[in-house]
Amino acid sequence: MLFPESWLREYCNPPLSTAALADVLTMGGFEVESTRPLAPAFSGVVVGEIMACEQHPNADRLRVCQVNVGSASSAPLSIVCGAPNARVGIRVPCAMVGAMLPPGADGVPFAIQQSKLRGIESAGMLCSANELQISDATAGLLELATDAPVGMSIRDHLKLDDVIFEVKLTPNLGHALSVYGLARELSALTGSPLAPQRSVTVAPTSAEVRRVTISAPDLCGRFSGRVIRGLNPTAPTPAWMVDKLARCGQRSVSALVDISNFVMFELGRPSHIFDLEKIHGAMDVRWARSSESLKLLNGNTVKLDAQVGVIAGVDGVESLAGIMGGDSTAVGDHTTAVYVEAAFWWPDAVAGRARRFNFSTDAGHRFERGVDPSLTVAHLELITQLVLDICGTPQTVVGPVDDQQPNMPKRLSVTLRVARASQIIGMPLTQARCVQVLRACGFDLTEGEGTITVQVPAHRFDITIEEDLIEEVARINGYDTLPKGSPVAALAVPLASPATARTREGSRSLHAVRRQLADLGYAETLSFSFVPEAWEADFYANADPVRLLNPMASTMAVMRSGLLGSLVQVLKHNLDRKASTARVFEIARSFKRDANAATGPLSVRGIDQPLRVAGLIYGSAEGLSWRLPARAVDFFDAKADIEALLAPMALCFLAVEHPAMHPGRCAAVHAALSDGSHDDLIGFVGELHPRWRQKYDLPLAPIVFELDAQVAASRSVASVATTPKFPPAERDLAWVLAESVTHAQLMGAVHAADLGALAGCLRQAVLFDIYRPKTPSADMAEGEKSCAVRLSFQSEAATFTDEQLEAAVAAIVGHVAAQLNGRLRG
User: Fold this and answer.
1) DSSP string, 575-625
2) Per-residue confidence at 471, pLDDT binned at 50, 70, 90?
């Protein structure tokens, strides 16, 4: 928000310099982003009056002017001027000989000297606003008011030593979106007196009232309006008003529009002035209908729906409630009768509506933060008086104020506990000091034993709970008064976990997991936990993700319940930049609803937040090589990486279906037990589903996996063992098994056999061949396969006898036959 320092000091003028004033506002919560002088430095420029103006004898576009600069001891100055609006009687800025004008593009001030133009002496220069660098207008001389004191310094006359403040306000400070609102806060911060708002009452001279119906009290809580007829539509805006608006960054439009803007900048009250003759029938304040549209004052035509408030006439919508008027009822050069409206629009009914149409307005910016509902009539009276003063004629008549209050906000009562305020702020406070601060803020209050109960003023929409009052006490008391010291608190060191601790016996840290994945050729990625809702539906079939109340963007609306979507996005980003291969991983928390989740130091009730490790591989498995043929990565590459990551844990891979993965190329990862069964689920691995490969435009299918990171971190760390001095004994067996028998079932049956004297000596069983005949044979029927397994026996105590080995092999063969109906291949 822009405003001039001089306007602020009209209402509150503390004995502070400009810099100190800016510091007080900033420390009070109203951040002053910048201050800049209204005009650059220049000197020797005074108000001059053109007494005579004659054509230059030697130039068609020059005139010789006689200029009175107020010096009683000298004759008027003869100045040659080329401005098209130079004429007798006007008062303009006159730079006399010796004046220094603002620097030009070269950065050097321009000195005015006695000169001769086309043979005529010129003793100065008549200036435009652009030449003084107080505006961009270049049309001619800057014409001053006809009563401007001749000879007075132009800096004093135009108050060019003023300073423009730019203040950045947080959304809760809607009550300070005006000069008077900031003055009110400045008065509370400094204790300087606050001048009252201008108060007028205009007696009606007509009985005319335009009927207004408020059909939506949840949209409009108060609506005040009146009819004014007989105005001069071409009346100019007074220079003082144009000047104040310009210093707030608002250009002058017309007198009626300028009056409405002036009251908004001064008092924070947006209003609207309709051309009365363009309103057909009674007006209705209601929610819009989906079939309606409106052409706005900015020229845009918007389609409306039931979420947007409007003011409508018989022929259709005339204004967006609290945001912008319609083009069809705009005032113009032929407007002689107006309807002036000042209303209270509920903040929730206005918030976000303008952004839906890709624009913003000063009115909407204020109404969505809250505008004082108690002053609609008072401000309407002030607007009326300004309209009469500027646009009034002998024929002007004013109707009575029509004030409707269907749904006024109730004033809240909030109690402050002084002890609680002292505890939160961190410094001792007395009840008397808290009362002094709150009274300075304009609050009505009553005192109790250690408590202060406040009636929240109508303009303070940001005060709803005790903490808001505590903030007021801290703010007005001064943040610089807070005691300086280091925070003191009792710290409890939590027990170390695999996620936070260094490697302990039987476990490792997540950093070790990262290092091992890096050793396997993976690059780590870091991505937001906020993801598009579509990812949750695509990759996890999650119809109820954890949604953010205030997302940063529509593509970051929910919390991810897994990491696969983020890895696919990383792959897509790299493919778009001509990458041909990728091996990436991420370790992060996921977020899913769980009614059993309890609140803890690192948890929130109802939300499970497990740590996950996910990886993705894509492209060539080996890269370009003269030795090996090109091959794309497949399921078994990712499976091997998972086995290496979780080693020495024995794993079991079971075919399952997963929303993100190919239905026939996906497996669940479990910890394998010695009897061939499996333990709890660790994660999933598989090829990306063809549907998502097509949706995300991936030339090849990536292989993805997602595992429980805590399992990866807590796996057993390999221990050092001596090498047995006795050599191993190996036996190769080939079993004929049903096609449905899995590798895990076969290995489980082999290891579960009772080996008698060689118990614990079967060190390894490796499947090294699978044979499927093209046609059924005598020893293998259709639907059978041959699985060749190498058994390795070794003892640290002695070598084995043939009898011991034969007995152990027979036990294994018998157990496989009993468990899997397997027979040795002949």
Assistant:
1) HTTT---EEEEEEEE--EE-TT---BTTBBTTEE--EEEEEEEESBSS-S-
2) very high
Query: Rounded to whole angstroms, how far apart are CA atoms 1 and 21?
Result: 16
What gap in Å lies between CA 305 and CA 288, rounded to an integer?
5
Angle at 260 between CA 259 and CA 263, to 5 degrees: 85
- Asked if 737 and 743 touch (Cβ cutoff 8 Å), the reply is no
In the block, tokens 């894509």 appear at: 618
Sign of the CA dihedral with 167 first, then 170, 171, and 172 last: negative
With 0-12 CB in 10 A as exposed, 13-18 as middle and 19+ as buried, what is 802?
Answer: exposed
DSSP structural state of residue 10: H
Q: Tens of pLDDT along 141-187?
A: 998 988 899 999 999 999 899 999 999 999 999 999 999 999 999 99
Say if strands 337-345 and 272-275 run parallel, antiparallel, or are unpaired: antiparallel
The residue type of 325 is: G
Neighbouring-strand partners of residue 180: none
Question: Which phi-psi region, left, alpha or beta, contains residue 247 (left: φ > 0; alpha: ψ -120 to 50)?
Answer: alpha
CA dihedral 57, 60, 61, 63 (to 10 degrees): 20
Structure tokens at 179: 């000069």
Q: Coil, helix or strand for 397?
A: strand
Q: Which residues of 607-621 are buried (b: 16+ CB within 10 A; e: fewer)?
A: ebbebbbbbbbbbee
Q: What is the DSSP string of 641-652?
A: HHHHHHTTS-EE
Residue owning tokens 């406040």: 454
Q: What is the 3-state secondary structure (H, E, C) of 47-78?
A: EEEEEEEEECCCCCCCEEEEEECCCCCCCCEE
Pairing of strands 661-672, 678-688: antiparallel
Burial class, 418, CB count within 10 angstroms (exposed 0-12 / middle 13-18 / buried 19+):
buried
User: Which SS3 state, helix, strand or coil, does residue 433 take?
Assistant: helix
Rounded-to-integer distance, Cα 76 and Cα 74, Å: 7
Residue written as tokens 């579509």? 534
Contact 615, 585 (CB under 8 A): yes
Q: What is the pTM of this model?
A: 0.65
- Percent of the residues in the chain that have a pLDDT greater than 90, as a whole number: 69
Between helix 418-425 and helix 466-477 the angle, nearest 10°, is 60
Q: Which of 713, 717, 702 is nearest to 522 (CA)?
A: 702
Pairing of strands 582-589, 523-524: parallel
Which residue from 343, 277, 350 is spatially nearest to 320, judged by alpha carbons?
Answer: 350
Spatial separation of the C-alpha atoms in residues 69 and 149, rounded to whole Å: 10
* Residue 45 burial (10 A CB sphere; 0-12, 13-18, 19+): buried
Work out the pLDDT band at 504, boundaries 50, 70, 90. very low
* Total residue length of the chain: 826
Residues 594 and 601: their CA atoms lie apart, in Å, by 17
DSSP secondary structure, 242-302, as one string: HHHHHHTT-----HHHHHHHHHHHHH----EEEEGGG--S-EEEEE--TT-EEEBTTS-EE
**Helix/strand/coil for 389:** helix
213: left (phi over 0), alpha (psi -120 to 50) or beta: beta
As a whole number, the mean pLDDT across the chain is: 90
Asked if residue 820 lies in contact with residue 741, where contact means CB atoms within 8 angstroms, the answer is: yes
Q: How far is CA 242 from CA 85, 247, 257, 336, 713, in A?
A: 20, 9, 11, 21, 71
Taking alpha carbons only, the member of 18, 249, 3, 41 closest to residue 155 is 41
- The residue among 749, 763, 761, 744 whose CA lies nearest residue 671 is 744
Q: What is the C-alpha to C-alpha distance for residues 557 and 550, in angstroms, rounded to an integer?
A: 8
Q: Taking Cα atoms as reference points, which of 169, 143, 121 lies closest to residue 50?
A: 143
pLDDT at res. 497 = 52
